[in-house]
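QA checklist item 7 of 12: single-chain prediction sanity check.
[x] sequence parsed
[x] length recorded as 147
[x] structure emitted
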Amino acid sequence: MSDPTVSGACLCGTVRFRARMPSLFCGHCHCTMCRRNHGAGFVSWFAVPDEQFAIEKGESELVRFASSDHGTRSFCGRCGSSLFCESSRHPGKIDIVLANMDGPIDRPPQVHVYFDDRADWVFAEDGLPRLGGETGLEPLKPDSEAD
């Protein structure tokens, strides 16, 4: 990738932002909060350190929702697009919804997290590692990985 910065936006374009690579991770989250927040079976996220992220326009339109005692989710107040997640459990980084990017980042999704919390109608046969447990990041026993 010649330009290590990738831009993104909400559905209506009111909020625009950019993330400078390299990313810290990229994966699919199956937790209940992500599913409900996005209305989808799972959500693909990537993260960068805070200093590699900037909002280019529309910051005044961002709405921040405390979705838990440790996390905040941000969305566009105009169109409702879910954009970012920040957690005190992972300070100094911001999670960004992969689907809101204008182009590719530096890596494809590499893991399923909170896989044991997935919707029973979601099947993942992509060969990616499946993590779960209390933290969502613990290796799952083979019997709990079955689709």
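[x] summary fact logged: The mean pLDDT is 93.
[ ] second reviewer sign-off
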